[in-house]
Design goal:
The chain is an alpha+beta fold. The two termini are about 30 Å apart.
Amino acid sequence: MPSKQEKKHLTGVGQFLEPGETALAALTAQAKGVSAARGTAAGVAGVAGVATSEVLGEKPGKEHASAADVGLDISAPMALVITDQRLLTLRTGTPIGMGLGGGIKNLLSAVPVTDVESIETSRAGMAKRVALTVSGITINLECNAGASTDEFADAFNRLPKP
């Protein structure tokens, strides 16, 4: 069952849909490693007073580069929406919790669902992971523990394949 935030994304994406396009599922997601990088940077900043790119590490940067290679912008915070025609990334406000905040602000990018080869999900501690394979390139994302990642993957898997 979609969370309040995911329902908000499904409602808010309407203005960015093409005529006849239907939104099927949504997630709040970010590049894998962003949460860990932010935590590390905050810890170092608290001790040393600064946070540098060396502290933030390469993992989120790798995911951003992979996404850019296939025409996706995975800037955080973002909503990931699968429709019957496209995979969309959309900038959102910062989610506060309990479904507050996090409304859709603008479309970041879109690729045809025919370019999406697979969407795989897993659990990693208190987070959930989503691996998108688009045009042969895998982009690893992370979501909070309450994200409806399996439902998102199921929506993609139910689409007719060319």
